[in-house]
Every structure is written in structure tokens, then in C-alpha cells.
Amino acid sequence: MATTTPTTTGGADRARPATAGRPRGARPRARSRRRWGTTALAVAIVAVLLFPLYWMVNASLQPSAALLSIPPRWFPEDPTLDGYRAAVDTQGRHLLISLFVACGNVVLTLAVAAPLAWALARFRLRVGPVLLFALLIVQMVPGIVMANSLFALFNTVGLLNNTIGLMLAHSTLSVPFAAILLRAFMQDLPREITEAAAIDGAGQWRTFRSVVLPMSRNAVITAGLFAFLFSWADFLFAITMTTRDAITPVTVGIYRFIGANTTDWNAVMASAVLASIPAAVLLVLAQRYIAAGITGGAVKD
């Protein structure tokens, strides 16, 4: 007996993939072109954002007369360090003052914000929600309002033209931010570890110092770095709280230097380069801690 096999050409056509007729490498090539296009766009955006930094370094290595030439010189043809010598002579003291004030602000911020954040994260305080709300509100107050208020207060207690006064003024910005950041991180710390420390006989302060702070290292470094940057880049508090050149931070020092040397642009740009180095170095060294401190907790589900 002869048997016949039914034909299912229609079903085969329906089962055939829609891309069967395309060349085998068409989709990878299209994906590769999109990737290269995205990379080129990102590089162009970064180049535009970094151009002012490049021009600052370029101008700091050229004589002042060369900066006024038309067309401008895109590269230092005859590099000179005269601008950096003038910057060190005029801004060296201001750089040291800014460094001292910024480091002092970091110590003050962490000394206040870390215990406060742990208390808000672990203990059921009646005033906890109110205090947290106050920390959020403080960050919304315009800086000029706080500067004027602190000026009147510091003038009364004798903290004007004083590095301690500058540290206290900067801490009004950095302490609320650091406390909120550290609280968010410490809330994710496992209670089992702190309870085990309590069973071993450790008190609250010993547990905080020996267990909580080491586990919160990434968040502490992040909070400290932001406190340093707040203080290092501050201009409003610095110009409000200082009237004497001997206690002037570098931001105000550069501002007044520009007013007195409007033609000495290579020295001005060299001062800006020197003022950018500490912040840039800290950001490079602490970038992995910053990423972990902002986005991560101690425990992953």
C-alpha cells in the first residue's frame, strides 16, 4: 500500500523566523554601529565638559601677552612657570588656610554626624522624626540667609576672621548632609552583629566605635569627602566671615587676586589649577568608596 506524506508548506512558512532572509552578520553589525555612535556622543560630551579645565591648564603655562593673541594659542608653544611662581607667592598662604579649614570641617562633621546618624538609625527616639525633618529643612535654607545670620552671631561671640568660625559655618552645610547619608547606610547594618557585640559585653559606645564605624567605612569616607569639598569650594561663607587677608581661604584669595591683577591671567589660571589639585586627588583616590557609600548597604538580600 502506498502512503502519502501531507505537505505543510504553510506551517513551515509561518514557523520560519522573520530574519531568516537577512545576512547572518547584519544584526551584530547594526548593534556595533549603535555602540560606536553612543561612544562617540559620550566622548564629545565629555570633551565639551572638560574643555574649560584644559584651557585653564593651557593658559597657566602661557605668558599673559600670549593669552590676548588672535587667534588664540591652543597649545603652550613657549611654556613658562612664571604664573605658578606668582600663584605660590600670592596664594600659598590661602591654600594652607583652606586645607586647614577643610580638614577641620571633616573632623567636626564626622564627630557630630556619625553618632547622630547611628542614633537616628537604631534607636526609637521621640524626637527622631522631628530631628530628621529639621536636617532636611536646614539644607533648603538659602546660603545667604545662613551667612547673614551667622555673621551677626559670630560678630557677637568673636568668631569673625577666625578659622574655627569658618569650620563651624561650613559644618552647618556638611553635618545635615552627612547625617542623612550615614543614617541611610547604617539602617542596613545587620542587627545580629550589634546584638552579638552587646552579648559579649560591649556597651553602646564601644559597639559604635568598634563595630558600626568599621562596617560603615564606605559611607564615612563618602561623607568626609563631601564635607571636604563643601568647605574647599565655599565662597559665600568665606567672604562673609573674613575681612582680613591673613585669614582668607583660597576661593576668596583668587577672587581678590583677579580684581588686583586683571592682566596677569597666567598667574590667575595657575592659582585655579593649584586650587583644583587637592579636590581632584581626593576624588580619584576615593572614587570606589564613594560609589559604594552612596549606592550600597552592608547587607544584600
UniProtKB/TrEMBL annotation:
Q: What region holds the ABC transmembrane type-1 domain? A: 95-286
Q: Look up the domain of life of the source.
A: Bacteria
What subcellular locations does the record give? Cell membrane
Q: What UniProt keywords are attached to this protein's entry? A: Cell membrane, Membrane, Sugar transport, Transmembrane, Transmembrane helix, Transport
Q: Name one GO biological process term.
A: transmembrane transport
Report the transmembrane regions from the record: 36-57, 95-118, 130-154, 166-185, 219-239, 265-286
Residue stretches of biased makeup (Basic residues): 24-33
The cross-references to InterPro entries, in alphabetical order and at most eight, read: BP-dep_ABC_trans_perm, MetI-like, MetI-like_sf
Main location group: membrane
**Stretch list, region Disordered:** 1-33
- Composition bias of kind Low complexity appears in 1-23
Family assignment from sequence similarity: Belongs to the binding-protein-dependent transport system permease family.
Could you tell me what this protein is called? Multiple sugar transport system permease protein
Origin organism lineage: Bacteria, Bacillati, Actinomycetota, Actinomycetes, Kitasatosporales
